[in-house]
Amino acid sequence: MASTFRKRFLYLLPGILTLCLSLGAYVLHSMRMLPWQSPVFDTALPATLPLTGAHAVLIFSKTNGFRHESIEVGIAAFKKAGLENGWDVHATENGALINSDYLHQFQVVVFLSTTGEILTPAQKSAFEKYIENGGGYAGIHSASDTEHGWAWYGKLLGTFFRDHTFLPLHLPEAEIITENAAHPANRGLPGRWTKADEWYNFKENIRKNEGFQVLLSLNDGSYPSFWYKMNGDHPISWTHRVGKGRMFYTAMGHHADTFSDPTAMRHMIGGIAWAGKLAQPVNR
Ligand SMILES: [Zn+2]
Protein backbone atom coordinates (compact mmCIF):
# COMPACT_ATOMS: atom_id res chain seq x y z
CA MET A 1 0.00 0.00 0.00
CA ALA A 2 2.74 2.37 1.11
CA SER A 3 4.86 1.44 -1.88
CA THR A 4 1.90 2.07 -4.26
CA PHE A 5 1.48 5.50 -2.68
CA ARG A 6 5.21 6.18 -3.07
CA LYS A 7 5.10 5.13 -6.73
CA ARG A 8 2.14 7.43 -7.36
CA PHE A 9 3.90 10.27 -5.56
CA LEU A 10 7.05 9.79 -7.68
CA TYR A 11 4.88 9.73 -10.78
CA LEU A 12 3.25 13.03 -9.77
CA LEU A 13 6.49 14.67 -8.57
CA PRO A 14 7.39 16.46 -11.85
CA GLY A 15 3.87 17.91 -11.96
CA ILE A 16 4.04 19.05 -8.31
CA LEU A 17 7.49 20.63 -8.86
CA THR A 18 6.27 22.45 -11.99
CA LEU A 19 3.25 23.74 -10.07
CA CYS A 20 5.45 24.97 -7.19
CA LEU A 21 7.88 26.71 -9.59
CA SER A 22 4.99 28.34 -11.46
CA LEU A 23 3.44 29.57 -8.21
CA GLY A 24 6.83 30.89 -7.05
CA ALA A 25 7.36 32.71 -10.36
CA TYR A 26 3.85 34.15 -10.11
CA VAL A 27 4.47 35.45 -6.58
CA LEU A 28 7.84 36.98 -7.59
CA HIS A 29 6.24 38.54 -10.65
CA SER A 30 3.26 39.98 -8.80
CA MET A 31 5.28 41.24 -5.85
CA ARG A 32 7.93 42.59 -8.26
CA MET A 33 10.55 40.84 -6.10
CA LEU A 34 13.31 40.45 -8.61
CA PRO A 35 16.33 39.71 -6.44
CA TRP A 36 18.83 39.93 -9.30
CA GLN A 37 18.02 43.60 -9.90
CA SER A 38 19.81 46.07 -7.66
CA PRO A 39 18.76 49.72 -7.90
CA VAL A 40 20.73 52.19 -10.00
CA PHE A 41 20.64 55.78 -8.72
CA ASP A 42 21.37 58.97 -10.64
CA THR A 43 23.60 61.64 -9.17
CA ALA A 44 24.96 63.38 -12.29
CA LEU A 45 23.03 66.34 -13.63
CA PRO A 46 22.83 66.96 -17.38
CA ALA A 47 25.46 69.40 -18.71
CA THR A 48 22.73 71.98 -19.27
CA LEU A 49 19.58 71.99 -17.18
CA PRO A 50 16.45 71.83 -19.32
CA LEU A 51 14.55 75.10 -18.95
CA THR A 52 10.81 75.12 -18.56
CA GLY A 53 8.09 77.52 -19.54
CA ALA A 54 4.92 78.34 -17.64
CA HIS A 55 2.48 75.66 -16.39
CA ALA A 56 5.23 73.08 -16.36
CA VAL A 57 4.57 69.37 -15.82
CA LEU A 58 7.42 66.92 -15.16
CA ILE A 59 6.94 63.27 -16.07
CA PHE A 60 9.28 61.01 -14.11
CA SER A 61 9.33 57.40 -15.27
CA LYS A 62 12.49 55.91 -13.76
CA THR A 63 12.29 52.15 -13.22
CA ASN A 64 14.49 49.97 -11.05
CA GLY A 65 12.09 47.03 -11.26
CA PHE A 66 9.54 45.93 -13.82
CA ARG A 67 9.52 48.16 -16.92
CA HIS A 68 6.10 48.80 -18.50
CA GLU A 69 5.94 49.03 -22.28
CA SER A 70 3.15 51.57 -21.84
CA ILE A 71 5.56 54.22 -20.43
CA GLU A 72 6.60 55.64 -23.81
CA VAL A 73 2.98 55.61 -25.00
CA GLY A 74 1.97 57.49 -21.83
CA ILE A 75 4.71 60.12 -22.24
CA ALA A 76 3.59 60.79 -25.84
CA ALA A 77 -0.06 61.05 -24.76
CA PHE A 78 0.72 63.49 -21.91
CA LYS A 79 2.92 65.60 -24.23
CA LYS A 80 0.03 65.78 -26.71
CA ALA A 81 -2.39 66.68 -23.91
CA GLY A 82 0.10 69.32 -22.78
CA LEU A 83 0.05 70.96 -26.21
CA GLU A 84 -3.76 70.99 -26.14
CA ASN A 85 -3.92 72.49 -22.65
CA GLY A 86 -1.04 74.95 -22.69
CA TRP A 87 1.18 72.87 -20.40
CA ASP A 88 4.94 72.63 -20.84
CA VAL A 89 5.50 68.88 -20.43
CA HIS A 90 9.02 67.59 -19.77
CA ALA A 91 9.92 63.92 -19.33
CA THR A 92 12.96 62.53 -17.54
CA GLU A 93 14.29 59.36 -15.94
CA ASN A 94 17.23 61.14 -14.31
CA GLY A 95 16.72 61.05 -10.55
CA ALA A 96 19.36 63.79 -10.12
CA LEU A 97 16.74 66.24 -11.44
CA ILE A 98 14.65 65.55 -8.34
CA ASN A 99 16.34 68.44 -6.55
CA SER A 100 14.84 71.63 -5.13
CA ASP A 101 16.29 73.99 -7.76
CA TYR A 102 14.85 72.03 -10.66
CA LEU A 103 11.57 70.95 -9.09
CA HIS A 104 10.44 74.44 -8.14
CA GLN A 105 9.85 75.17 -11.85
CA PHE A 106 7.09 72.55 -12.02
CA GLN A 107 3.46 72.67 -10.97
CA VAL A 108 3.24 68.88 -10.74
CA VAL A 109 5.46 65.80 -11.04
CA VAL A 110 3.87 62.72 -12.62
CA PHE A 111 5.35 59.39 -11.46
CA LEU A 112 4.47 57.40 -14.58
CA SER A 113 4.73 53.67 -13.83
CA THR A 114 7.92 54.07 -11.81
CA THR A 115 9.09 50.88 -10.07
CA GLY A 116 11.52 49.91 -7.35
CA GLU A 117 13.82 52.10 -5.31
CA ILE A 118 14.56 55.10 -7.53
CA LEU A 119 15.71 58.04 -5.41
CA THR A 120 18.65 58.72 -3.09
CA PRO A 121 17.94 60.02 0.45
CA ALA A 122 18.78 63.59 -0.69
CA GLN A 123 16.41 63.31 -3.68
CA LYS A 124 13.65 61.95 -1.42
CA SER A 125 14.13 64.84 0.97
CA ALA A 126 13.95 67.38 -1.91
CA PHE A 127 10.75 65.76 -3.17
CA GLU A 128 9.15 65.81 0.30
CA LYS A 129 9.89 69.55 0.64
CA TYR A 130 8.60 70.22 -2.88
CA ILE A 131 5.22 68.59 -2.16
CA GLU A 132 4.79 69.95 1.35
CA ASN A 133 5.52 73.47 0.09
CA GLY A 134 2.74 73.30 -2.52
CA GLY A 135 3.96 71.08 -5.37
CA GLY A 136 1.73 68.49 -7.01
CA TYR A 137 2.13 64.72 -7.33
CA ALA A 138 0.26 62.49 -9.77
CA GLY A 139 0.98 58.75 -9.54
CA ILE A 140 0.07 56.47 -12.41
CA HIS A 141 -0.20 52.65 -12.12
CA SER A 142 3.01 51.20 -10.62
CA ALA A 143 3.85 54.49 -8.91
CA SER A 144 2.31 52.54 -6.00
CA ASP A 145 4.86 49.74 -6.58
CA THR A 146 7.72 52.17 -5.99
CA GLU A 147 9.84 52.88 -2.91
CA HIS A 148 8.00 50.49 -0.54
CA GLY A 149 10.51 51.37 2.19
CA TRP A 150 10.07 55.17 1.99
CA ALA A 151 7.67 55.94 4.85
CA TRP A 152 6.84 59.48 3.67
CA TYR A 153 5.95 58.18 0.21
CA GLY A 154 3.70 55.57 1.81
CA LYS A 155 1.85 58.36 3.63
CA LEU A 156 1.61 60.33 0.39
CA LEU A 157 0.06 57.38 -1.45
CA GLY A 158 -1.87 56.03 1.53
CA THR A 159 -0.95 52.43 0.73
CA PHE A 160 1.20 50.35 -1.59
CA PHE A 161 0.61 47.84 -4.39
CA ARG A 162 0.01 44.28 -3.12
CA ASP A 163 -0.57 42.20 -6.30
CA HIS A 164 -2.52 42.25 -9.52
CA THR A 165 -4.84 40.29 -11.79
CA PHE A 166 -3.03 37.39 -13.41
CA LEU A 167 -5.19 34.26 -13.61
CA PRO A 168 -7.45 33.49 -15.39
CA LEU A 169 -6.96 36.86 -17.12
CA HIS A 170 -4.11 39.35 -16.80
CA LEU A 171 -6.03 42.27 -18.34
CA PRO A 172 -9.70 41.64 -17.61
CA GLU A 173 -12.39 44.14 -18.50
CA ALA A 174 -13.82 45.44 -15.22
CA GLU A 175 -16.63 47.79 -14.31
CA ILE A 176 -15.41 51.06 -12.81
CA ILE A 177 -17.63 53.08 -10.45
CA THR A 178 -17.14 56.85 -10.57
CA GLU A 179 -17.34 58.29 -7.06
CA ASN A 180 -17.30 62.02 -6.26
CA ALA A 181 -18.54 63.04 -9.70
CA ALA A 182 -17.93 66.72 -8.89
CA HIS A 183 -14.18 66.31 -8.46
CA PRO A 184 -12.26 67.87 -11.40
CA ALA A 185 -10.65 64.47 -12.18
CA ASN A 186 -14.10 62.95 -12.61
CA ARG A 187 -15.94 65.72 -14.43
CA GLY A 188 -17.78 64.32 -17.45
CA LEU A 189 -17.10 60.67 -16.54
CA PRO A 190 -19.96 58.15 -16.76
CA GLY A 191 -21.28 56.88 -13.40
CA ARG A 192 -20.23 53.37 -14.39
CA TRP A 193 -17.87 52.43 -17.23
CA THR A 194 -15.70 49.53 -18.30
CA LYS A 195 -12.05 49.21 -19.14
CA ALA A 196 -9.58 46.37 -19.63
CA ASP A 197 -6.38 46.68 -17.60
CA GLU A 198 -4.12 44.94 -15.12
CA TRP A 199 -6.06 45.64 -11.92
CA TYR A 200 -4.19 46.23 -8.70
CA ASN A 201 -4.95 45.07 -5.18
CA PHE A 202 -3.45 47.16 -2.40
CA LYS A 203 -1.95 46.36 0.98
CA GLU A 204 -4.58 48.55 2.71
CA ASN A 205 -7.92 49.98 1.68
CA ILE A 206 -7.31 53.74 1.63
CA ARG A 207 -10.99 54.53 2.22
CA LYS A 208 -10.36 54.42 5.95
CA ASN A 209 -7.53 57.01 5.70
CA GLU A 210 -8.53 60.40 7.06
CA GLY A 211 -8.53 63.17 4.46
CA PHE A 212 -8.43 60.81 1.47
CA GLN A 213 -11.13 61.05 -1.19
CA VAL A 214 -11.92 58.03 -3.36
CA LEU A 215 -12.44 58.96 -7.02
CA LEU A 216 -12.89 55.58 -8.71
CA SER A 217 -13.46 52.06 -7.44
CA LEU A 218 -13.81 48.67 -9.11
CA ASN A 219 -16.91 46.54 -9.04
CA ASP A 220 -15.10 43.47 -7.70
CA GLY A 221 -17.84 41.17 -8.97
CA SER A 222 -17.42 42.34 -12.57
CA TYR A 223 -14.18 40.50 -13.45
CA PRO A 224 -12.68 37.09 -12.76
CA SER A 225 -9.69 36.43 -10.52
CA PHE A 226 -8.51 33.24 -8.83
CA TRP A 227 -6.76 35.41 -6.23
CA TYR A 228 -8.51 37.36 -3.48
CA LYS A 229 -9.34 40.99 -4.29
CA MET A 230 -10.23 43.77 -1.83
CA ASN A 231 -13.20 42.31 0.06
CA GLY A 232 -15.79 44.05 -2.11
CA ASP A 233 -14.58 47.64 -1.61
CA HIS A 234 -11.87 48.39 -4.14
CA PRO A 235 -10.70 52.02 -4.59
CA ILE A 236 -8.36 52.42 -7.58
CA SER A 237 -8.08 56.25 -7.82
CA TRP A 238 -7.92 58.76 -5.01
CA THR A 239 -6.65 62.15 -3.86
CA HIS A 240 -5.63 63.97 -0.72
CA ARG A 241 -3.56 66.92 0.40
CA VAL A 242 -0.11 66.81 1.98
CA GLY A 243 1.00 70.09 3.57
CA LYS A 244 0.31 72.73 0.92
CA GLY A 245 0.60 70.13 -1.86
CA ARG A 246 -1.89 67.87 -3.56
CA MET A 247 -1.69 64.26 -4.66
CA PHE A 248 -3.67 62.25 -7.19
CA TYR A 249 -3.20 58.54 -7.83
CA THR A 250 -4.75 56.13 -10.28
CA ALA A 251 -3.98 52.43 -10.60
CA MET A 252 -4.87 52.21 -14.28
CA GLY A 253 -2.17 52.40 -16.95
CA HIS A 254 -0.55 48.99 -17.42
CA HIS A 255 -2.39 48.61 -20.71
CA ALA A 256 -0.98 51.01 -23.33
CA ASP A 257 -4.55 51.50 -24.60
CA THR A 258 -5.20 53.46 -21.39
CA PHE A 259 -3.46 56.43 -22.99
CA SER A 260 -5.81 56.47 -25.99
CA ASP A 261 -8.97 55.71 -24.00
CA PRO A 262 -10.82 59.07 -23.90
CA THR A 263 -12.49 58.33 -20.53
CA ALA A 264 -9.27 57.21 -18.85
CA MET A 265 -7.37 60.19 -20.33
CA ARG A 266 -10.08 62.60 -19.17
CA HIS A 267 -9.66 61.21 -15.65
CA MET A 268 -5.85 61.35 -15.67
CA ILE A 269 -5.58 64.80 -17.27
CA GLY A 270 -8.16 66.13 -14.80
CA GLY A 271 -6.24 64.56 -11.91
CA ILE A 272 -2.89 65.95 -13.04
CA ALA A 273 -4.43 69.43 -13.53
CA TRP A 274 -6.02 69.29 -10.06
CA ALA A 275 -2.79 68.13 -8.37
CA GLY A 276 -0.81 70.85 -10.17
CA LYS A 277 -3.41 73.61 -9.61
CA LEU A 278 -3.48 74.00 -13.38
CA ALA A 279 -6.52 75.24 -15.30
CA GLN A 280 -8.84 72.35 -16.13
CA PRO A 281 -9.23 71.55 -19.85
CA VAL A 282 -11.92 73.81 -21.34
CA ASN A 283 -13.89 71.11 -23.16
CA ARG A 284 -15.04 69.41 -19.95
ZN1 LIG B 1 1.46 46.82 -14.66
UniProtKB/TrEMBL annotation:
Domain of life: Bacteria
Pfam families: ThuA (PF06283)
Gene3D superfamilies: 3.40.50.880
Organism ancestry: Bacteria, Pseudomonadati, Bacteroidota, Cytophagia, Cytophagales
Descriptive protein name: ThuA domain-containing protein
Domain called ThuA-like: residue spans: 57-275
